[in-house]
């Protein structure tokens, strides 16, 4: 082997670790480690796992007890595979609409919206899969106006706010393009090195393919072959695969060609005015779309069929999913989110799950008005806190509970992600946090859930912690429908598994960093707890009944 290759082996050995990449989809849930299957349903005290006590609740509180309400959960996401075997009977049906007749039977402006609506498509059936980031769209909007400005002195006073925003998004765009270009180049170099290393091994073996066992059996080889063997074994031990390399290459190429590309504008297929909330009748009734890979596992955590022996156990049983496709690969539009929230409210949703977010929100008023509308109509909003290891008390993660006027809605839960063990790694290393703006935590690490086409997958993110809270909320409301959204929110906050005194590593920190109190990362310092929440719900409902009788 050439010296250049040996040097590159050492460089890339330090540069790449594939252990944190997304897991491959599998046809059977049994393909995943048993400890990860349904762990979010476990109980901390009984199972020594930082789950949310769902199984305990069913066993000790709900056996023989009938639900009193079917809870409608709106999934505002990328789309859901509504035909998945583990979601049979769980998909909401718009009874006011006649399927496939091409007529808007219920008069809401959306034709054949049987299971929800797709705001990322045209009435001709075309769909948007990938979008630009919001900061790219802002940069594109303001660049023709400000790109020749040399100093702030040239900017009119009433445009100063827009100009400063322009400078911010321009700098971010330049930094992101540089980073993704560097990563793309590094991946190509890595692929070249990997191929060279494989050639060394294959030449030694005299074959065209090899297995990990073949690598382990190589002994008494030359120095270059031994280096190649050891390096490949180390890569595979870290979880590397050719498929993951291709996936990483595809992600960086998508970033450069679409997410960060100022010239890329797929929105033209819709033809709406994105700054006009009243221009609201667009899209199609395709609720799966081209990428249901995110909304499907989200739905599975909330309400996959329990005890059917074929997959995972969701949290709530008497639940129906209203699917609202509004989240592309890239940043969602504020207008789409606002209209999706209003659609959910107008069509009877009780809980809205929002596993998405971004750093900029140019039409925040659209969303503010929609979440206030949800509050007025007794709808609970559950939002994932995000995966950037930020303190969102300092860096706003949109959409947010706080409106532009400084007031907060009272029907909102912001959810961080915890891992399986209640030790120093309890808080997921990627999770956003915030004493003021994160409400509570829920399982969001190595979650086994549903994937498209009756497959299963292992996922990570606050995107899946939020659905755990949504599932618990739906579970409680199905037994205690007389609770208001605000009462339900308060119950979830006041019944958490108390881990205030637990010392944990702060997200994004180093493994040897000093630990902080878990109580400093959210307003409750706890993890949602279904068992305790049901006990509290029972108590509050009984107190309400007693108060009515005494009047």
Describe the structure.
There is one protein chain. By secondary structure, this protein is an alpha/beta fold. The protein folds into two domains: 3-16 and 135-259, no CATH class; 32-132 and 274-550, Peptidase S8/S53 domain (Rossmann fold, 3-Layer(aba) Sandwich), CATH 3.40.50. 38% of the residues lie in helices and 10% in strands. The chain has helices at residues 3-15, 44-47, 54-62, 134-146, 160-205, 212-216, 223-237, 242-259, 295-303, 334-346, 364-376, 462-479, 485-494, 530-550; strands spanning 71-77, 116-118, 319-325, 351-354, 380-384, 412-418, 440-443, 447-451, 455-459, 497-498, 503-504, 516-517, 526-527. α11 (364-376) links the parallel β4 (351-354) and β5. The protein starts with a helix and ends with a helix.
Briefly, what CATH class of the largest domain?
A: Alpha Beta
Number of structural units classed as domains: 2
CATH architecture annotation name of the largest domain: 3-Layer(aba) Sandwich
Regions with little confidence, pLDDT below 50 for 5+ residues: 1-22
State the major sheet: 7 strands, parallel
Determine the mean pLDDT.
93
CATH topology description of the largest domain: Rossmann fold
Quaternary organisation of the protein chains: single chain
Label the structural class.
Answer: alpha/beta
- Give, in spatial order, the strands making up the sheet with the most strands: 2-3-1-4-5-6-7
Find the CATH superfamily of the largest domain: Peptidase S8/S53 domain
Question: Helix and strand succession?
Answer: HHHEEHHHHHHEHEHEEEEEHHEEEEH
How many helices?
Answer: 14
Beta-strand percentage? 5-15%
